[in-house]
C-alpha cells in the first residue's frame, strides 16, 4: 500500500515502508536482493532501509553494487564511500568498473545506463531481485521524456514498481515516494550521502527537467508527480491488455527459418491486416527478439519497404543495433555487426591432425575454427552411422572445405533424383542470400562431397548402418 503523508515530513518511516513493500513480494527462500547503489541520497535511503530489513530477514542474501563509470574525477572517492557505508550497514559491496561508449550520435545518459544495468544484471539469477531507488519525481521525469519522444502507452506507462528482467525481477520500493520525503528522511536519520556534480549539468535531459521544469510545474500544481504517476499506471493497464492481445496473435505470424533455427516473421497476408495491427504485430516481433523498438515513423517506413519492395529486391534496413532483412516473404532480424571480409583464400585443406584421429576412430568428433574474420561458425567433423553422411575419404584423397562456389556449379543432393545448379538449390533449401557466402563445401580432391548443413552429394552418400563423415556448422554467438 502507498505510504500516506498526512503527518509532517520527518515523521514518515521509509524504512518501514521499504520493509512492508519487500515483505509483500513473496520472495523466494534462496533470493538475493541486489541494490544498485550509487551513494546518492535516494540509494542511501534504500540501502539503509535494506539493512533494517536484512536484520529481520537473515534468510535472504544481500549485495550492494556500485558501478564505477569513470565519468567523474570523484568516482574513486564515491566507490570508497559506498564500500564504507556498506560496512556500516553490514551489507557486502561490489565495485563494478565499466567503460561508457561516447560518440557524436550517442546519448551519454543512455549509454551509461545501458552498461550500468549490464554490469549489475550479471549478478542476478532467476530468483533474485534488483532494487533501484527510483522515486515519484523520477517517474514524472520519465513520463515527460516519453512525451518529448512522442511515445505511446508503453512509453507513458514509464516505470513499474515490479518489472521482469531477463534474470529475476526489478523492484522499485520508493516509486510512490517524493524526492522531498526521501531527503527529509535522510536528514532525520543522519545518513551520509554523496552529491554527483553532474546532477547540476542541465545539458542532460533529466537534469534539465529536474532543475528547470519540474520545480515550476510543482509550484503551480504541487501534486503533479502523483497525478502523473496515476496516468502512467492507467497507461500500463491499457498496455498490458494490448500486450495480451498481441501475444495471442503474434505466434500465428512466426515460424522457424528452414535453413537454421531462427525465428522469422511471415509476411503472407500481412498486407491484409489493418495499419494498426501491422504496426502492433511487427513491433511485437521486434521486441520478442530482444531489440529496441523503432519510432513510429521508422516502423511505418519499415512496413512500407517490406510490403512494397519487389520479390527479388534486397531489403536491408538498420535501426540502431537491429538489422532487418527480407527473404522468401519472411522477415529476419539480426544484431548489427561491422566486419570486413577476410582476404584469406576461400578454401582450406584439412590437416592430418584433424583427419587421422577421426579416420582411425581415436576420436568420434572434432570441432575446427576456420581462421579469419569472414566466418561466423565453427565446423564440426564427426564419424557416425546416423543421419546424412558421406563415405569416409580414401587415404590418397585430399579433403578440403571451399566457399563461394559459382552459381552454375552443378550439385546432386542425396534427397533428389536429379542434379541441379547451385543457384537453384539456394532457393530450394531456403538459404538467404546474405548467408550463402558463408556456406562451406567439402571436397575430396576435386569432387564435391557435401554442402555443410544442407546436403550430401548422392554419389558419396552412405546408407544403412555404415560409418560415414558428417560435417555441420556451429554458429558462433
TrEMBL record:
Major localization class: cytoplasm
Key words, A-Z: ATP-binding, Cytoplasm, Ligase, Nucleotide-binding, tRNA processing
Annotated positions binding ATP: 38-43
EC number per UniProt: 6.3.4.19
InterPro entries, per database record: Lysidine-tRNA-synth_C, Rossmann-like_a/b/a_fold, TilS/TtcA_N, tRNA_Ile_lys_synt, tRNA_Ile_lys_synt_N, tRNA_Ile_lys_synt_subst-bd
Domain of life: Bacteria
Family according to the record: Belongs to the tRNA(Ile)-lysidine synthase family.
Protein name: tRNA(Ile)-lysidine synthase
Organism listed in the record: Shewanella morhuae
Amino acid at each position: 500500500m502507498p505510504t500516506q503523508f498526512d503527518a509532517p515530513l520527518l515523521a514518515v518511516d521509509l524504512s518501514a515502508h521499504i520493509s512492508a513493500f519487500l515483505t509483500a513480494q513473496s520472495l523466494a527462500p534462496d533470493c538475493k536482493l541486489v541494490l544498485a547503489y550509487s551513494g546518492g541520497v535516494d540509494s542511501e535511503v534504500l540501502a539503509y532501509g535494506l539493512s533494517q530489513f536484512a536484520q529481520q530477514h537473515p534468510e535472504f542474501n544481500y549485495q550492494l553494487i556500485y558501478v564505477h563509470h569513470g565519468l567523474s574525477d570523484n568516482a574513486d572517492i564515491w566507490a570508497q564511500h559506498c564500500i564504507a557505508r556498506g560496512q556500516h550497514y553490514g551489507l557486502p559491496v561490489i565495485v563494478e568498473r565499466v567503460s561508457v561508449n561516447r560518440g557524436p550520435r550517442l546519448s551519454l545518459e543512455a549509454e551509461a545506463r545501458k552498461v550500468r544495468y549490464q554490469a549489475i544484471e550479471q549478478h542476478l539469477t532467476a530468483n533474485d531481485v534488483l532494487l533501484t531507488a527510483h522515486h515519484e519525481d523520477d517517474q514524472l521525469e520519465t513520463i515527460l521524456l516519453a512525451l518529448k519522444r512522442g511515445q505511446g502507452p508503453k512509453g507513458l506507462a514509464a516505470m513499474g514498481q515490479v518489472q521482469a528482467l531477463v534474470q529475476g525481477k526489478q523492484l522499485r520500493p520508493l516509486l510512490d515516494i517524493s524526492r522531498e520525503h526521501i531527503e527529509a528522511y535522510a536528514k532525520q536519520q543522519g545518513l551520509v550521502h554523496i552529491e554527483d556534480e553532474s546532477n547540476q549539468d542541465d545539458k542532460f535531459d533529466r537534469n534539465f527537467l529536474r532543475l528547470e521544469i519540474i520545480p515550476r510545474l510543482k509550484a503551480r500544481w504541487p501534486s503533479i508527480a502523483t497525478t502523473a504517476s496515476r496516468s502512467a499506471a492507467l497507461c500500463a493497464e491499457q498496455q498490458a491488455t494490448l500486450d495480451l492481445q498481441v501475444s495471442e496473435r503474434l505466434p500465428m505470424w512466426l515460424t522457424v527459418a528452414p535453413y537454421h533455427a531462427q525465428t522469422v516473421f511471415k509476411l503472407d497476408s500481412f498486407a491484409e491486416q489493418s495499419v494498426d495491427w501491422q504496426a502492433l504485430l511487427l513491433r511485437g516481433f521486434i521486441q520478442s527478439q530482444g531489440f529496441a523498438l523503432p519510432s513510429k515513423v521508422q516502423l511505418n517506413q519499415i512496413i512500407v519497404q517490406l510490403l512494397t519492395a519487389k520479390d527479388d529486391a534486397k531489403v536491408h534496413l538498420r535501426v540502431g543495433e537491429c538489422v532487418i532483412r527480407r527473404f522468401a516473404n519472411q522477415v529476419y532480424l539480426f544484431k548489427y555487426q561491422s566486419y570486413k571480409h577476410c582476404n584469406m583464400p576461400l578454401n582450406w585443406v584439412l590437416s592430418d591432425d584433424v583427419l587421422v584421429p577421426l579416420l582411425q576412430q581415436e576420436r568420434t568428433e572434432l570441432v575446427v575454427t576456420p581462421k579469419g574474420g569472414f566466418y561466423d561458425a565453427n565446423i564440426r567433423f564427426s564419424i557416425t552411422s546416423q543421419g546424412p553422411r558421406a563415405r569416409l575419404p580414401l587415404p590418397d584423397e585430399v579433403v578440403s572445405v571451399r566457399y563461394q562456389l559459382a552459381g552454375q556449379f552443378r550439385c546432386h543432393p542425396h534427397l533428389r533424383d536429379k542434379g541441379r545448379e547451385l543457384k537453384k538449390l539456394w532457393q530450394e533449401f531456403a538459404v538467404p542470400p546474405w548467408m550463402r557466402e558463408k556456406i562451406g563445401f567439402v571436397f575430396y580432391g576435386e569432387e564435391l562431397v557435401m554442402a555443410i548443413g544442407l546436403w550430401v552429394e548422392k554419389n558419396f552418400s552412405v546408407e544403412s548402418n555404415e560409418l560415414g563423415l558428417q560435417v555441420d556448422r556451429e554458429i558462433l554467438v
